[in-house]
Design a protein that fits this description.
single chain; 258 residues; TIM Barrel; eight-stranded parallel barrel
C-alpha cells in the first residue's frame, strides 16, 4: 500500500538527547495502537546531538537531519557533513525559512545541498514559501515558481521525483497564523503544475509528495490534511508536545482509512 501521508515534526533547537529518546519511545507506544504503518509515515527532525540517541528506538518513527553542508569535508567550522550523518537518518530538511532568513542561505546553497543529499541517498525535504509582503503584493505564485526553478536547477527528472516538498508560508511559521486550507490547497496545486513540467515523460506530478507547514496544530490538521493536493504536514511547535503531535497523526490515519 502506498503511503498517503507524511507527518513530520521539526524540533528545531529544542530537546536534549535524553528528552528526544523519551519522546520517541512514548510516541512509538502510541502509534503502535493505530494499526499498520503502510498508509502514514511518521518522521521527526531532532537536533544533531540527538540523532544517534534516537536511532533504532522505533520502527514506526523515522528520523531526519535539520540541515547538512554540501561539501563532504573541509574547513567549515560548526557545519555537518553528509558523511557524518552516515546511516543515522533517512531524510534531510533543506531550505527551511529560518535557514534562508536567519542564516542567509541562498537558492544556490540550497540547490547544492539537494544534490549532495541525493548523492548520499538521503531524501531531501525542500521547504519553499513566500513572505507576508510577497503574499500581500500578489507574488506568491511567482515566488514559488522562482524558488522551485532555482532550487531544482540541474537535477534530472528522476532526481526531482525523489524530493519531498514542503510549502511553508513564512508569515505562518511560529506566528499562530496559518494559511486557510483553501489557500494552502491553491498553492499546493500550483506546485504540482510547476513540477509537472519537470517530471519524467509519462510521470505525473500527482505522485509528488507535497506537505504543508505553518502553525499546524490539532485544531486545524484534519481540515488541512483533507485537501486534495496536501500529502502531509511539517509540524513545528505542536510536534514538541506528545499529545498534540499524536493527535495530528491520528487525523492522518482517520483520513487514510476513509
Amino acid at each position: 500500500m502506498e503511503t498517503e501521508y507524511i507527518i513530520a515534526g521539526n524540533w528545531k533547537m529544542f530537546k536534549t538527547p535524553a528528552e528526544s529518546v523519551d519522546f520517541v519511545k512514548e510516541l512509538h507506544g502510541k502509534v503502535t495502537t493505530l494499526g499498520p504503518a503502510d498508509s502514514v509515515e511518521i518522521l521527526v527532525f531532532p537536533s544533531f546531538t540527538s540523532l544517534l540517541s534516537v536511532k533504532g528506538i522505533s520502527n514506526r518513527v523515522k528520523t531526519g537531519a535539520q540541515n547538512l553542508h554540501f561539501e563532504e569535508k573541509g574547513a567549515f567550522t560548526g557545519e555537518i557533513s553528509p558523511l557524518m550523518l552516515g546511516n543515522l537518518v533517512d531524510y534531510v530538511l533543506i531550505g527551511h525559512s529560518e535557514r534562508r532568513e536567519i542564516f542567509k542561505e541562498t537558492d544556490d546553497d540550497i540547490n547544492k545541498k539537494i544534490k549532495t543529499a541525493l548523492n548520499h541517498r538521503f531524501i531531501p525535504v525542500l521547504c519553499i514559501g513566500e513572505s507576508l509582503a510577497e503574499r500581500e503584493a500578489g507574488k506568491t505564485f511567482s515566488k514559488i515558481e522562482d524558488q522551485l526553478n532555482r532550487d531544482l536547477e540541474g537535477l534530472s527528472p528522476g532526481e526531482i521525483e525523489k524530493v519531498v516538498f514542503a510549502y511553508e508560508p513564512i508569515w505562518a511559521i511560529g506566528t499562530g497564523k496559518n494559511a486557510a486550507p483553501r489557500q494552502a490547497q491553491e498553492v499546493h496545486a500550483y506546485i504540482r503544475e510547476i513540477l509537472e513540467k519537470k517530471m519524467s515523460p509519462g510521470k505525473s506530478a500527482e505522485t509528488a509528495r507535497v506537505l504543508y507547514g505553518g502553525s499546524v496544530k490539532p485544531q486545524n490538521s484534519y481540515e488541512i490534511l483533507s485537501q486534495n493536493d496536501i500529502n502531509g504536514v511539517l509540524v513545528g511547535g505542536a510536534s514538541l508536545k506528545i499529545d498534540d503531535f499524536f493527535a495530528i497523526i491520528q487525523d492522518s490515519y482517520k483520513l487514510a482509512d476513509r
